[in-house]
Amino acid sequence: MERRKIFILTSVTLALALLFSTTLQAALGDRVLSRGARGSDVKEMQVKLKQLGYNSVGPIDGIFGRLTEGAVRAFQSGRGLRVDGVAGPETIRLLKRLTGGGTNPGGKAVSSNSADVNLLAHVVNGEARGEPFEGQVAVAAVVLNRLKDSRFPKTVAGIIYQPGAFSSVSDGQFNLPPDASSIKAARDAINGSDPSHGALYFFAPSKTSNRFIWSRPQLTRIGNHIFTL
Length: 229
Hints:
Blueprint: H1 2-24, H2 40-51, H3 66-78, H4 89-98, H5 114-128, H6 133-147, H7 156-160, H8 167-171, H9 180-190, E1 201-203, H10 211-215, E2 218-222, E3 225-228
Antiparallel strand pairs: 1-3, 2-3
């Protein structure tokens, strides 16, 4: 009888240990994440949130605490999702989609895959629709140039969706279907074309009196946009 009790206790202990180990090694999307969760999937989610500019996520430690919950809520609010602070299937699916792509040697994501091309084409269409083709390529290049700068997020999606970064995201122009010219401009920029000469910002001088943007060193003007550092 005593042996049977020991056997049962040992089996339960092993089962719990296996369950705990499996949970810690779970991949993002394997389970719903909420406050109190721990594991590699939580850490992966924290990294993705940080890539998108949600620096309030706190330390990348694999622990779903108060700061991580706040970052999840901010992400959900900014993407029109149900704001509950719980990373369920819909939240995780969108988070993974926005941070897709490979990484360059500097650790920042950029690729010629359809997700990155699509995001760039949308921002080109929203920001430079009707501009000369060279200017459209330059707008896409600005996004890619920011990938090389440590002050900006580490993915194309993170840069585009960084709060306040692009007016077309704020006013909804970004959501319009990109035309063929915008798509080609996005591909040209990904393939290395940069008429902006390394610019990190651009603006339409007739539409802004912002002191910060006017204070930046100006590199070139294409169409209605000035490109600056």
